[in-house]
Amino acid sequence: MVRTSPTYRVALGGLGAIGFKVARELDKGIPGLSLTAISAHDREGGASRVADFAKPPPVMPLDALSDHADVVVECAPASVFEQVAVPAIEAGCIFMPMSSAALLVRPKLITRAQETGARIIIPTGALIGFDAVRAAAEGNIKSVRMKSIKPIEGLINSPHLKEHGIDPTHLEARTKIFDGTALEAAAGFPANVNITAALSLAGIGPDKTMLEIWADPHAKRNVHTVEVEAAETRFSVCIEGIPSPENPASGLLTPLSLIAALRGLTATLRVGS
Hints:
273 residues, alpha/beta, Rossmann fold, Dihydrodipicolinate Reductase, domain 2, 2 domains, five-stranded parallel β-sheet, 30% helix
């Protein structure tokens, strides 16, 4: 008896710097996946962007995506997160959020997913070492600390900076602008700390995962360093991500991590958890 791989219908909530790259790759063809719907802030503009696709998907409102998909991918601004997340979870879909910081401050959605049978899969984004963190979490993690050094362009308009009267464009040297928990960071920097949110969910939780954010007017890359201390192991990882020219708050690796996560849904061979 030969088992056949499942086929998933995929809908994308967002067609910006991340969403369009993923949409293009899906249209080229990923085994077991088909792009069935997209959403864009400008529906006519979204339809125009995918007009040259081999199979142009229909453009529809965010809250309608789950009616046409088994997998709903969220790659939209955090301000519209619930418009994608709630219908997908209620429909029992596989939900892949890139805005993991938005999920972090809405823990009831995780509880609801358990009730509806939905699965939430968070791509690794621009960070490495998640497999090691998940493995260590099966034992006894004592501490997780992360330090992020960011170019100022991606930090502009962050709620935390507005609240504290900090204008990153006036900084002349590398400056620490935040030191606290991942949960606090998710509220203060909803567009900047998705990888920290994912790290906290993979490890010891948002109240125990600590984060420092440094704004650097001379930095050209997002530099993330993670240090984990556990009873069974100790490790540190560092990655230097190149910011996206279209969206400085995100990195060029982010859409690639999402494409890899989608491939993993139907892959015959997967490396890592």
